[in-house]
Amino acid sequence: MIYLLDSNILITAYQNYYSFDICPGFWRLLIEQYEKEKIYSIDKVQFELSSQTDELADWVQEELPGAFFLDSGEDATISKFGEYMIWAQQKDQFLDAAKEEFATVADAWLIAHAHAIGATVVTLEVFNPDIKKKIPIPNVCREFGVEAIDTFEMMRRLGMTLV
């Protein structure tokens, strides 16, 4: 199984429980799992992460191999992205601002690429059937049959342990 990481996986780990100074092993494990061809993300997530000016952006530029971020411009991904945009626009549940944000951030591209290659999305967002202000990744995943899990479930499945 291949796991595609949402930007919030890295951002939250960096800002909270797995900061570089407290838990460097987490970051080494991510690279090890990439080398085993288990963990990736996409170019749109790389753009989101690299647009910051912090230690995480530096780590993305200096430590992660460029091939960690897969090209989301494949035909199958673009086709799925289009499906998600139509679905989102047709959902009266979501506010226009949520639809606009969904069309411009990496989320739909991440799900579309996971769908196209049969991967699992890893995100800290949670399913919420009543939300209006945002279109959560797990909502879209559930609608289109793409698996979405969190960091800890991914780590369990991959046998990643921090010692």
Automatic annotation (TrEMBL):
Superkingdom: Bacteria
InterPro entries: PIN-like_dom_sf, UCP008505
SUPFAM superfamilies to which the protein is assigned, alphabetical: PIN domain-like (SSF88723)
Pfam families: DUF4411 (PF14367)
Stated name of the protein: DUF4411 family protein
